[in-house]
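dude i think i finally got it to work??
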Amino acid sequence: MLHYLLNLLSLIAAVAVHGGTRNVEQFRDSKCGVAFSIPKNWLVVKVPNSDGHVLCVFEIRPKNLKQLMEEYDVDIYSVYLKVRRMGFDKAVPETGFAKENGEWLARGRGLDSGADVIRNMPWFGIRASVTTGCFHEKGGYAGLCEVPAALIGNKSISAELWGGPQGVNEFETVLRNFRFHPSGT
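look at this
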């Protein structure tokens, strides 16, 4: 019940922030086999990667990120998405999540926290708020950040998402509308 209420509140917050569906647009990458919604004032950048198990890495960020970063050179906004050529169960050890004594955990910077199960047929997932280190773009440690994280997938493909502490609503928009498509498997 609590999970349902949290999802409902998340949806209400996203609608309030983005003004409903008129302020979001669909993004689809047929090579990677994914589709999701993003706010219209955000963009998706494909990030190069060399890991053979990784199909695609995307950075989803505000169009005005450069301007936002002028004041404080830590990216606290962007959402990152990594799509792997491995099912959910095989991807778990590659992420900051673990299952111990039947409970899902998120591994943070020396702090473990409980993770919640999410279901959005035909994928399964887990999500949590994780404490991690934040760094200045020009180098140097900026402190600890509390960020949203999730791992979703099915038997053949998975996606790991994590967002900036000021990009929680955008993270929710991507996660809530995320779909796998057969062309990427």
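Confidence is low (pLDDT under 50) at residues 1-19.
im so relieved honestly
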